Each structure stands twice: as C-alpha cells, then as structure tokens.
Amino acid sequence: MTVVFWFAILIFAVAIAVGLVRVASAKDLGSRAIIGDLVYFAAIGILTLIAMLTNVSIMLDVIFLSSLLGILATIALSRILTRGHR
Amino acid sequence: MTTVVDVFIAFCVLSGSLLVLVSALAMFRAKDALSRINVFSPATGLGMPLVVLGCYAYTLQQEGFSVYRLLIAIIAFFSLIIVSSIASNTLSRSTLLSGSPVHRYTRPNRLAYAQGEDPREDGAAGGRGFGDAQGETQGDAQDDDDPTAS
C-alpha cells in the first residue's frame, strides 16, 4: 500500500512538473491560469496521499476544505484577466 | 476482503493521479486557452473525486465507519465536481472576454461565429471565408510550442 501511495505521489509530482513547464512556455494568460488550477489540485492530491501515508486523521478534512475553497483562486484569476470587468 | 479493498483503493488513487497527469500532458496538445480549460475537466471532474473515493475507502478500512466522515466525503466528492465546473465556466468566459485568440481548429466554435455562419459547418459553400466573422476573439492562436501539428 505504501508503494502505491508513493507511486501516486510521484505521478502527481510529474503532473506538477509538466504543468510548470507548460506555464513557462505558454503565451496567453488563460492557459497560465488554468495550469495554476491544475497545480493546485495536484498539490491537494499529494497532500491527501501524504496524510494517508502517515495515518493522519484529518485526511478527509484537507480534501473537503480545499475542494470547497478551490474556486477562489480561479475566480480571482479570471477577474484579473478581465481587469475587474465582469 | 481486505485485499479487495486494497486493490480498490490502489485503483482509485492511481487512476485519479493518472487522470491528472494526462490532463497536464493534454495541455501541450490543446491549441488555445479554451481547449486547455476544456481538457482540464477530467482532472477535477473524475480524477480528484476518485482520489476522494480512495481516501474514504482507506479511512473506512483503517478507522471504521463514521457519519461525519461519510458526510465530509460526500460533500467533497460533489463539491469538487460542481465547484470546478463553475470555476472553469467563469475562467473560460473571462478568457474569451479578455480577447484571448481562439484557434481555427477549435470546433464547434459557436462563440466566434453566429449560428449558421460557421464556414466549416455548412461546408464553406456560401462563399464565406475565414476572415468574415472574425471578431476580436477570433484569430489564429500562435503556434508557439507545437509548430509541427496541423
């Protein structure tokens, strides 16, 4: 089970690395915003898997709160994209 | 029985993380920002709920049943789907409003063409060229990273 969790952490880390490479090579701002969202969710996945590895009892609370608050960064980035215009 | 639960947890966690990785790789294949927002939805719509499911099964196996954890898992499962959909909708709307270019191979492209005016849908028989209905949001996205793809 530990091997599976470490492997999943590795896959998430590769996803974050690929996303950061794409951020560096992307030209338009919308792509960067959505890849920022991707990095956020992959980081949540890594955090959940670490909590499962170390048997912390708050693993579901972490993913609960972060899934509810994950909209805030995206909404803020979209407001920045339109310069405050709705 | 515990082996079955272990295999289920491993399947959920691994397939969820693989979906996130595939979405990250698909960012290279998509041509414009709208397509990238579109191909991101498997990660949050299926990948992360699978991770939540695996996490809840692991909690169920380790610590037993609890109404609080079941409630939190259900809320997290559905809020990941709903919240990420709303966020993607808002982000794509603001991306289009801010004048981000839409690639000409993004189809169906009803945001840039009015209905019935899409030259690819009615076979370009009406003599409408590509340059007709191009507004501010329509134009060739820069193929900065993938010049070989057609």
TrEMBL record, chain A:
Compartments where found: Cell membrane
- Give the record's keywords alphabetically: Cell membrane, Membrane, Transmembrane, Transmembrane helix
TM segment ranges: 6-26, 38-56, 62-81
Acetylation in keyword set: no
Q: Which GO terms describe its cellular component?
A: plasma membrane
Topology with respect to the bilayer = Multi-pass membrane protein
Q: What is this protein called?
A: Na(+) H(+) antiporter subunit F
The organism of origin for this protein: Brevibacterium yomogidense
TrEMBL record, chain B:
Listed transmembrane segments: 6-28, 40-60, 66-87
Q: Which UniProt keywords apply?
A: Membrane, Transmembrane, Transmembrane helix
Q: Where is this region: Disordered?
A: 108-150
The signal peptide, as residue positions, is none
GO MF terms, alphabetically ordered: sodium:proton antiporter activity
Q: Where is the composition biased (Acidic residues)?
A: 141-150
* Pfam families on file: PhaG_MnhG_YufB
Question: What's the family?
Answer: Belongs to the CPA3 antiporters (TC 2.A.63) subunit G family.
Protein name according to UniProt: Na(+) H(+) antiporter subunit G
Query: Lineage of the native species?
Result: Bacteria, Bacillati, Actinomycetota, Actinomycetes, Micrococcales
